[in-house]
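We store amino acids, tokens; thus:
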Amino acid sequence: MKSILVLHAHPAPRHSNANTDLAKVAQEVEGVTFVDLYARYPRFKINIDKEQEQLLAHDVIIFQFPLMWYSTPSLLKEWQDLVLEYGFAYGEGGTALAGKCLLPVVSVGGPQTAYAPQGNNNFELPSFLSPLQQTANLCSMRYVSPFTLFASLRARNDGRLAQHTTQYRRLLEALRDDEFDFESAKQLPILTAENISSVAGEKK
């Protein structure tokens, strides 16, 4: 059984339209360690040793966050800057994270059509998350395409949030039980509630 670390970063959870429900799911799944970074570090004083110890103790690392100004929330970026040190995560002797999995779980306010060359945001979502993919590459980690909820502000009212949380649980359990198809997932630039069944099921 794989161990999973979910690093949840939402600067204003009381205004969350989706991440609160996703956080509840993550906390319910056996084998998942859930960390609310903004609750743990309200003044951004990150305990580097503690965070590195948690990384060493887990096989799968999940960054769960709302996309904010086309990037991660500021505390998660600060976490990356401080915790992923040279000699630990990369560089000479920096092999601590080699072979581990990095998966972004992202909520996005706009619809998927807005994240296209012809859309309001001009680029597809993976382009905005490419720094995370390259971080995984530099740290010799296995990067998984982001599990994404588009139009998250409307997801509860139109019924999509319930489906998304159900499929998030399925994703976590598949990763935990070594039933996630990494090779098939490479062919999908984005994981969604609609396509997760093609990669998260019984191990072939």
Q: What stands out?
A: The radius of gyration is 16 Å.
